[in-house]
Task: structure prediction
Amino acid sequence: MTRGMIVAPQPEAVEAGARALMAGGNAVDAAIACALMQTVVDPCMAGIAGVGCMQLYLPSDGIHSFIDFYGRAPDAARPDMWEDRIDFETAGGFGFIVRDSLNDLGYQAVTKPGSLMAFHDASTRHGRLAWSELLEPAIARAEAGFTVRPHVYEWWSLASDHGRVVPAQRLGFSETGRRLYLDDNGQPHRPGTLIQNPDMARTLKRIANDGIEVFYEGEIGQAIAAEMEANGGLLSLGDLTTYRTETAEPLWGEYRGHRISTNPPPGGGVTVLEALHILENFDLAALGHNTPGYIRVVSDAMKRASADRLNHVADPAFVEVPIDRLLGKDYARDHATAIKHGERAQIARYKGGRESANTTHISAVDGDGNAVSMTHTLGMPSGVIPEGLGILLNGSMNLFDPRPGHAASIAPGKARPSSIAPSIVFKGDDPFLVIGAPGGAYITMGILQVILNVIDFAMPVTDAVAAARFSATGNAIEVSNRIPRLITDELEAEGYEVERQYFSYGFSGVHAILIEDGQWTGAADPGRDGMALEV
Result:
């Protein structure tokens, strides 16, 4: 048995990871077993036909790198294909809405899927357990069924998604989806309902027996490609057979004596680091946690980093991303000086709207000092479940900019922009905080605030994750309902636009492990359904 800890938003997935450790696996095995189970028990948040990014810190093997498996635009995609169909850009910068939701729901919304290949690459390169062994718990759970949890139902039953297709329409887009996830009245199954997915179990068994080639080249991939071609989709068998994950070096930043490693573009790590570099110029502890002064300063740093992400951060194979400037301490001081002088950042949007959050995260460590931080997602699920396969395909095309000539514009083979930011904070040479989150454009804002809570306010990690959060990825300051009105009244009196959300917990679902004096403390976001488990 390997000692370790794992934290994620789904209890069944956390247990699968823990069992991998108990079977002698390492943090990589735990993370992959967890991820595969997530695709079963949280099928709209993640899937083997999804996308994401994984940070691997494996000191015994001399490895510290990322496996990037972002969704790439199909080869049939073109920069101007939706240019005349744009309705609006979401207020938080999490994609565009086009008429008939072509980039959001259905066959044209699907990008090249990377999750399955990334899980296999990590397992075979760096794990200890057999690939088929990691699939066994997910197969068993798909056959036996999973119970709908409160947070799963909360998302499934949203009556409005701010211009996007509501989740129930995604669940019911395919006949398979209607059979699996909707009741006789066409409504999502309620909490406590047992959902069995024998088609998914059979798909996972074929992958366990025949390898991932059956998905990317063989019968499963051919079935996906045939359904795409029959329904006007962009994805082809050639897109699947040529897909490869990419290995990347960490992007580094510093904050109050700590080094932070996070993912490079097109991921969201640069946004976290830029905001930290700006905020290093302020005595946040003296301002006080979640006071009007604190929210004023932190939200302006959020806006400035978010604006730079929107204007500059995209796939570096297609766009020159000015990383050195964005992460430069002089650039950060210039932003901080502007904030101190009362200059308020503004973010230009193409019309308006709001973002959605469909993603999941895993943080895992083991007794050998290995650490994994992985965020993976379906984007907004496309609703496409090919007959007989039981798996949802990603809907990540909506994160591209349908206007040609912009950093995030569509191009064949281009990786979609993303806010995911699987990160590790180091104290000296050793990992101190393994952290990440689901939550759309809120991801970077949630990770940022937990890091500030731990470093500036010396909060225990469980308190740091549970503390009330706010976000400013658009021009308004959004606050959770646990931030008192006596705080926001003062901000509004100063002319700030404040949007109070109904939820008590939100603005991403941060999951983290703090490592100090050889001890692990895990924190699962109380706004989700997960847990931390040590073995």
Notes: Residues 352-356 have pLDDT under 50 and may be disordered. The first strand starts at residue 4 and ends at 8. The radius of gyration is 21 Å. Residues 55 and 66 are 5 Å apart (CA to CA).
